[in-house]
Specification:
It is a single chain. This protein has helices at residues 7-17, 31-39, 72-81, 106-109, 125-138, 167-175, 189-205; strands spanning 21-27, 43-52, 55-60, 85-88, 114-119, 141-145, 157-160, 178-181, 217-221. It has 224 residues and is an alpha/beta fold. A nine-stranded mixed sheet has the order 6-5-4-3-2-1-9-7-8.
Length: 224
């Protein structure tokens, strides 16, 4: 959670650009996604980016927060226990020296459903091409996400896919979908970095947690 956008503005932005389904994946909590689902007139997929000791995994269709710091195997087991799907977001990082390649081992990939092949905050096309190759070699579904931390980033990368009725059907429809969108400007990282600094400062001043108001987003356009 690295932005500070009120949930009402997120809903308005999605309505403005025609997004009718949004996967909200905060870091380490589903609280913001649950609140957004109460407000949004469109479908909201409850998701979470979960930090393991060797990289991030994303759980989709969750109903409970999964804590950070668990092993990839335990994280996957907890996602499955909720009937959720497992996605590897930006598997080859968003920066030149970032590479979550330990999560792309055969043992982990055999338990994964989806690989994110277009992340709008990834600066280098090589990361996307490597992700496409990884998904193809292992027969995994592909996804795209804005990874939006500011309001104008919503919709930068998204999936256009048929209507779906649940997690299993979502995978089938995802395989029929199209990856669309483009990478964001490198300058989008500055507002979210500033937001992180402000939140850390607030946490020192206010020991009680501040309710989440912001999220990372995977967008979808099309029938829902």
């Amino acid at each position: 959670m690295d932005c500070g956008t009120p949930l009402e503005k997120i809903v308005a932005r999605c309505n403005e650009i025609g997004i009718n389904c949004l996967a909200v994946a905060d870091h380490g909590t589903i609280a913001g996604a649950l609140k957004l689902r109460e407000l949004a007139p469109f479908r909201v997929i409850i998701a979470e980016e979960i930090l393991t000791p060797i990289g991030e995994l994303m759980g989709l269709f969750l109903n409970e927060t999964i804590p950070n710091g668990l092993s990839p195997e335990e994280t996957i087991a907890r996602i499955r226990g909720q009937g959720g799907l497992i996605n590897i977001p930006h598997p080859f990082g968003r920066w030149p020296l970032q590479n979550s390649n330990k999560l792309t081992s055969p043992g982990i990939l055999s338990q994964v459903d989806i690989v994110e092949v277009l992340n709008a905050r990834t600066l280098f096309p090589n990361s996307s091409s490597k992700a496409w190759k990884l998904a193809s070699e292992h027969g995994l579904a592909v996804s795209a996400g804005s990874d939006a931390h500011t309001i104008r980033e919503i919709g930068r990368a998204y999936m256009e896919m048929p209507e779906f009725s649940g997690p299993g059907d979502f995978l089938d429809c995802l395989s029929q979908g199209k990856v669309l969108g483009h990478r964001s400007s490198p300058f989008v990282h500055f507002p979210s970095t500033w937001s992180k600094v402000r939140k850390r400062s607030r946490s020192h001043l206010h020991p009680n947690p501040i309710p989440p108001r912001e999220s990372d987003y995977t967008d979808r356009k099309g029938p829902c």
